[in-house]
Amino acid sequence: MAAERIIGIDLGTTNSCVAVMEAGTAKVIENSEGSRTTPSVVAFTENERLVGELAKRQANINAQNTIYASKRIIGRRYDDMRDVKCPYEVFPAKNGDAWIRARGEGYSPVQIGAFVLEKIKETAERYFGAPVKKAVITVPAYFNDAQRQATKDAGTIAGLDVVRIINEPTAAALAYGLDKGDKQRTIVVYDLGGGTFDVSVLEIAEGVFEVKATNGDTKLGGEDFDNAVMEHMMESFKQETGIDLHNDPMAVQRIKEAAEKAKIELSSRLETDITLPFISSDSTGAKHLSLKLTRAKFEGLVSELIERTIEPCKKALDDAGIKDTSKIDEVVLVGGMTRMPKVIQRVKDFFGGKEPCKGVNPDEVVAIGAAIQGGILTGDVRDVLLLDVAPLSLGIETLGGVFTPLIERNTTIPTKKSQVFSTAEDGQTAVTIKVYQGERKMAVDNKLLGQFSLEGIPSAPRGIPQIEVTFDIDANGIVHVSAKDKASGKEQTIKIQSSGGLSEEEIKKMVQDAQDRAEEDEKRKKRVELKNSAEALIHSTEKSLNDYGDKISSADKSGIEAAIKELRECLSNDDSSSDVIQQKYDALMQLSMKLGEAAYSAQKDSGTSTDSTASDTSGNPEERVVDSEYQEIKKDDEDKK
């Protein structure tokens, strides 16, 4: 039996992409709008939820209920949101996580991600004509455990079995290096996407992709470049008119779209004009925003952001033990922001003048790599071994609040490490262990993943009990912890219950809500299709009535006209159920058959007359045969053309 297919998904901050392995090649799947990427945007209107391009199109008139860049919020606490600017409301959930409010309802960023993944899943299922259950999903290499778990939860809510979480730069390296032969090479993947920045150093040889080091910044990406342009636009407008647009969500949304458009245009042009008519008004009348933005000015606005990518590059090279950039064979650029000429030039300068590789599509390469990883898991891709690393150190809080790492950053995963701890006081029968992730010396400055208590320790003087704690990072980069009391031999596996994140009950509820929503969406879709069919039937029946109404009895004609009227009234009433519409539709369809019979009879009569005329000039069939010369063109001749 063939292995179940696994799709590869790049769940991006700005856009998402899906690919699959087919006949040994990774193929990007187009969505229902015919695009190879889908905007990671979710909007809530009065009557429905929109995802992707449809959500993005209506953002101007529904800014406060249109959610974009939710990936920058996923797995994060509300008190860690100072760097995120958006027109929609972000509020603290009961557990302290950052949640989003739209149309009065609270949504976890995990749910928003799940809505995007549902759209991606539908895209794949439409392509295959069959259900899709398994997926490899990519995350920024510098995502912490909470963010990775949140991404996996989003997949679960969307109805996907997330068989692997893979780092985006590693996926890009897979896509880039799979067909490059067995020669050993050292490559750097510089990934500047919509919301995050990652850099990874890899060694590739004989099908082995080994990540030597990774670094990055989860709070740096294309959104920040957009924000820099937005601030410039709003400040220019304020200086000109005295009006501050920051508190006008609709204006901010229009400015955001214009800023993103200008940013993209300046990758291929030296200047661009930004014009937003009727952006605001005052007592003197309507105000318009109009300014010229040059590439040089844009580069000046974002120069600090570009420079922020260099320090992680230095750290990654240092962790990989590379002192000389000439040892790097290739620099691969990933992410939409790497199309910016200034970014390309800065990367080139840092890596000793080496021209970055432009042989990959920065918007699609990560999804392609995820699909290849899916192929590795199913066995469709052979002789490829991927060795990734833990991006951040993992450890515990020890006496005095010091952070004691057990698993250092850039350790190859999966990995497991144990260490023996003891009690700090005489007669202590329980210990509380706090697990942190990060690089700071003091535990409180790092990310608290969770904490647990081990109770029932035999009473003894301090330092005597021996408690072996094991930290385990799986292939997804997700942390598991177990503890064993060596004196009694009692062992217990402990699942970290983070102070944030979604509980199993919340995830189950969201999964059920998604399934219920899918049923509602299917009913809504069928209702729309039924209404479209009814409109088409009314149109065609009225046309036939106009053409052949005189061929049927007045009673039949009156009955058809009455049925058309009833169906039209039914369609104009929003409260009409699908069953009622179907009944009216069937009634008109039945009556319109009379018109069909009349039309057939009229065409038959016309056809008989035509055949009669044609027979007068037909003559002997053989007399109408015309000889013609021909030349046979062989395949070899065709190939020469």
TrEMBL record:
Residues 605-619 have a biased composition (Low complexity). The modification Phosphothreonine is found at T196. GO terms for cellular component: cytoplasm. GO terms for molecular function: ATP binding; ATP-dependent protein folding chaperone; unfolded protein binding. Gene3D superfamilies: 1.20.1270.10, 3.30.420.40, Actin, Chain A, domain 4, Substrate Binding Domain Of DNAk, Chain A, domain 1. Pfam families: HSP70. PANTHER family: HEAT SHOCK PROTEIN 70KDA (PTHR19375). Belongs to the heat shock protein 70 family. Acts as a chaperone. This is Chaperone protein DnaK. It comes from Anaplasma marginale.
